[in-house]
Amino acid sequence: MPAKFILIGSGLAxxxxxxxxxxxxxxxxxxxxxxxxxxxxxxxxxxxxxxxxTRGIHALEQLGxxxxxxxxxxxxxxxxxxxxxxxxHFAPYDVDPKKCINSIGRAALxxxxxxxxxxxxxxxVHFNHRCTDVDLDSATAHLVASFVDSGVPATPKxxxxxxxxxxxxxxxxxxxxxxxxxxxxxxxMQTKLTAFEYDESYLAHGYKELTIPPGPDGSWQMxxxxxxxxxxxxFMMIALPNPDGSFTCTLFWEFEGPRSFATTxxxxxxxxxxxxxxxxxxxxxxxxxxxxxxxxxGSLVTIRCGPWFYKDKVALVGDAAHxxxxxxxxxxxxxFEDCVVLDECLEKFPENHERxxxxxxxxxxxxxxxxxxxxxxxxxxxxxxxxxxTFRAKxxxxxxxxxxxxGVYVPLYTMVTxxxxxxxxxxxxxxxxxxxxxxxxxxxxxxxxLLTFYFGAR
Length: 458
Ligand SMILES: Cc1cc2nc3c(=O)[nH]c(=O)nc-3n(C[C@H](O)[C@H](O)[C@H](O)COP(=O)(O)OP(=O)(O)OC[C@H]3O[C@@H](n4cnc5c(N)ncnc54)[C@H](O)[C@@H]3O)c2cc1C
Prior knowledge:
- With 458 residues, this protein is α/β, with parallel strands linked by helices.
- It has three domains: 4-73 and 100-199 and 301-377, FAD/NAD(P)-binding domain, CATH 3.50.50; 201-299; 389-457.
- It contains 13 helices and 19 strands.
- The strands form four sheets. The chain has a seven-stranded mixed β-sheet with strand order 6-5-14-15-16-13-17.
- Helix 9 (331-348) packs antiparallel against helix 10 (353-385).
- It is globular and about 85 Å long.
- Bound molecules: flavin-adenine dinucleotide.
- Flavin-adenine dinucleotide is lined by residues 8-14, 31-34, 46-47, 50-51, 130-131, 178-180, 184, 207, 250, 298, 318-320, 326, 329-333, 335.
- Residues 8-14, 31-34, 46-47, 50-51, 130-131, 178-180, 184, 207, 250, 298, 318-320, 326, 329-333, 335 line the site of flavin-adenine dinucleotide (FAD).
């Protein structure tokens, strides 16, 4: 009998993991608290589009679905920086113009991975099932179903006080929590395991999504193949292109403070703020006030925890194990990489899931911790440094060195985004490269001083 996995959460990583486990022949029941995204369910409160890059594409390729996903993606070749005067500066991501990140719609990607899982008859997906708790030792998830699978509301039970819900106990050989940053599976581990470490930290910034619609002829109103950034030191706005000609903008701004979400309430205050900070974007945003009022303000959390497994009974994958802030565009890419690594570990230890989970955790933990730091560092780079001439000069130097020393000097952004070098290795290597470049510069300056002194003295 193949082992049975209960997966909680069919978001981006849940669907993908379902497909990986299905391919390996496991029996999989995947429970998702939301309705089927194919029925028009909007993934509320999250980014509408995201950037997929090498790690995510590799994970999709292993299942033969990368082409499907990329067919609907928009390549972004670099950052388009908008300064306050409306002047634009384009900074390519890499010396190789073919290297790009890809803007894709969250809902479409979610559907693709769920359908990839459903290709395997041994994978069953149950929507409208919310996990409330997990019994760790028996690998049993307790769920509340708001609808039965047919989509028809379940018969109310007297014990439910007449509400159209149904309580289900799903037992497997293991439960895997792929239920995002506020994971119920992780919550069960936190409350029941004394040796479980947990740390969460929130940025002082929140985010709000806004829209730039397509132009009258349905085309993009700004450069399509770029990630647009309006860096304003302590805050910023970004925009990613969508296939329908629109852009999804995200304002990252302080929750509190003299100028912040808290103090900018009236239509006049919102208009004044945008006209002052993003004057070239305002004419392209006819629904600015409506979007600003109606769209929620999300928070940005970093979660570190461990261990990500309990015996051979429970494991955590994706944001449930390691939520990071979105500034490196790597949260989903890292979650997809988790699925690849967990699959490799299950292949290596098919009869011993505890060893497989342990190896998966030890291969991933250091790397996702490194990514958490890199993501926070990139927020400072995007909102503050991208506007400066020094930053642009450093990027040019990076690209010059990368072209002059191929394979020897690889910029950090390139390692993180366009390779599968483990995140922690990339971070260490970048620090070493920076030290060598700095030492080289100092040596050049010293040489110049000595030569000036020598020739001056003759
Ligand atoms: C503003 C923003 C922009 C981002 N941009 C990027 C980007 O450009 N590139 C990138 O790689 N990453 C990006 N990310 C990060 C990315 O969204 C996450 O890393 C990714 O969604 C993680 O996938 P996941 O499957 O682990 O979690 P999720 O996608 O959050 O999926 C979790 C699923 O579990 C379900 N669920 C939750 N609780 C329960 C429960 N109790 N019972 C049953 N089901 C449950 C949820 O409904 C959901 O479907 C961004 C994040 C944000 C907030």
